[in-house]
Amino acid sequence: MKKPKIVILGAGYGGIMTIVNLQKKLGASDAEIVLVNKNDYHYETTWLHEVSAGTIHQDRSRVPVKNLINTNKVTFIKDTVVDIKLDEKRVLLENSELTYDYLVVALGYEAETFGIKGLKEYAFTITSINAARQIREHIDYVFATYNNEVEKRDELLTIIVGGAGFTGIEFVGELANRVPQLCKEFDIPREKVRVICVEAAPTALPGFDPELVEYAVTQLERKGIEFKIGTAIKECTEEGIIVSKDDQVEEIKSATVVWAAGVRGSHVIEKAGFENMRGRVKVSNSLLAPGHEDVFVIGDCSLMINPETERPYPPTAQIAMQQGGTCAENISRLMKGQKELSEFKPDIKGTVCSLGHDDAIGVVYGRKLFGSSASFMKKVVDNRSLFLQGGAGLVLKKGKFNFF
Amino acid sequence: MKKPKIVILGAGYGGIMTIVNLQKKLGASDAEIVLVNKNDYHYETTWLHEVSAGTIHQDRSRVPVKNLINTNKVTFIKDTVVDIKLDEKRVLLENSELTYDYLVVALGYEAETFGIKGLKEYAFTITSINAARQIREHIDYVFATYNNEVEKRDELLTIIVGGAGFTGIEFVGELANRVPQLCKEFDIPREKVRVICVEAAPTALPGFDPELVEYAVTQLERKGIEFKIGTAIKECTEEGIIVSKDDQVEEIKSATVVWAAGVRGSHVIEKAGFENMRGRVKVSNSLLAPGHEDVFVIGDCSLMINPETERPYPPTAQIAMQQGGTCAENISRLMKGQKELSEFKPDIKGTVCSLGHDDAIGVVYGRKLFGSSASFMKKVVDNRSLFLQGGAGLVLKKGKFNFF
């Protein structure tokens, strides 16, 4: 009898947690499990703002895939997914192709620029290890350039962050700590450096508790971050950005624009012909793609509505990881011929937004936290995520213990 | 009685050694000594190829000026020299001006591009801490960019070094060691990286012993450096360089072109109206500028003919430092009203050219050296230079002890 073939696309939070759970449920003879990922490493997406700012090294935030999987049970293919032929149960990769009996699409997110002119061409996005590392090196380079010019261009020292949502705030939090180091490294007076966070919504961190938002903004302003709230980016150019607020248009010159205000699912979702919204598939409670009995979509490529708020759950690592568990359970049930599948219900323990390594705000089990207690919880969250993926060994190797 | 005012322009090897020697000869009441320098630090120019390649940090190769001078005897002004009004015995600085009784011009070198099209616009030069640091960060940035592009551009990983003279060879020697680190840091296959050293002369290191040159080239080629000897750079563009050899024209695409093949004296020499050749003043044996009794020119802005070869002495740190001694002696003699001045005669102990931190070639006291003995001598030379400038303390702080 031929073993069923389970193909998992993506080694992010969702994909890895599916594997980790499948490995526990299935023996080597039960199924053929194949994991496909673009890189030979998994990375902590929620740490990329730190890599981008240069406050942690990329190697801290990534793990070789082979360290996370049981290679006796799982075949790993380093390749890029090009398309999925759903009718033929086939996945096209850049260098080969694969058939599947069960498919898990966990291809993560991409930047969404909402059609704002020039963002794709001129703005950086915090979307991968490669992208994060490039942001870090770009900032280093423009700072290194500053003192070489006869006519000093202050825009080399202006960093614009588009978006004061979760990622934008966490990124400027790291920059606030990084800027003094950069000034020392490149002999630049601190007062020449500007970090400007631009947000179209009427508040930073929309959806967060207003008291915590006020704390975050005040703390970051104290560290030298400028906020332009209720201000929309109209265009990004080679020279900087054009913003508008109350019909007042302003140009801000900057050599570094980082767009941190929008994410969407993978373009492969669209290409494969799934019904989708911005690359996200509205999945069933059992995480199946509509109209399919063997294709699961999880993580940032999936869309589920929170019945309490009637709005989609946010694309978070927490949910992606939990979905990996449900997905593995359902594949195992399907393999046993069970009709009844497990229903996914997120167990949201809380949200913590860091403001640099030494400060944070958050709500954990319904309790508001800020300052060092929130910062402590942020590290607990980060370490827990490592523990779920790779056990205590991974926590010891890459965990965050700079509690104080 | 008014104290005579000695103004020294430049805190490089020549300027600092003039100060160090003047401080010994003169008491605080004998003269007013003013040192002007663009930066508040002195740097080891002969180590800049290491900073540029990223094999040592800039802070290793620089020292605050105040640590090298006796501030009871010397006034330091951080400013940029704009012009010298020789008739009025006045020096114009960016932010102020100075009069002098004795002037020492030790403004160092600038890059000479010999009118080759595009070099000024598109090539980097190893001419200062700022410039060196920018080269390092530029290379980091283009390497970080490589993996972000859908269509990989191999020219991002091609580094062209113009010139296989002393600086060019020392720089590619460092790059040979640095490239494997860069590949690891940015997930790049080593075989994708090219370092190409282009030299118009029929040999690398013209003037060096041919046996040593062969050793150097062979060793560097073994480490992956490519040489294009007898090949002239015709033009540098935004895309790379255009070279010609035996009337064959070739374009080499590269994101990083470093011009290391020509130096000249300071543009201030020309502006001030000194008789000069490429910013270098042909000084008398007592180091005075022609037609002046109170203006000394030393270091890379000076030109002296070696009577044995009838060619100019090369612009080296060794000679600049020795000139500082003679210059200080002659100022002190002039102050005492002595007519007879000391004549400068370089005492050339040897020349060592590094090929990375672990290899070198050289001639020391007429003896040919290569490999680890030469590499050892190179570090002795570097440490001796520190000792002369700042004593044993400076050697301990910044010296090179990675002998093996």
TrEMBL record, chains A, B:
Keywords: FAD, Flavoprotein, Oxidoreductase. Its EC number is 1.6.99.3. Its cofactor is FAD. The keyword Translocase does not apply. Residues 5-324 form the FAD/NAD(P)-binding domain. GO terms for biological process: aerobic electron transport chain. InterPro entries: FAD/NAD-bd_sf, FAD/NAD-binding_dom, NADH-Q_oxidoreductase. The keyword Oxidoreductase applies. Gene3D superfamilies: 3.50.50.100. One of its GO terms (molecular function) is NAD(P)H dehydrogenase (quinone) activity. Belongs to the NADH dehydrogenase family. PANTHER family: 64 KDA MITOCHONDRIAL NADH DEHYDROGENASE (EUROFUNG), APOPTOSIS-INDUCING FACTOR 1. This is NADH dehydrogenase.
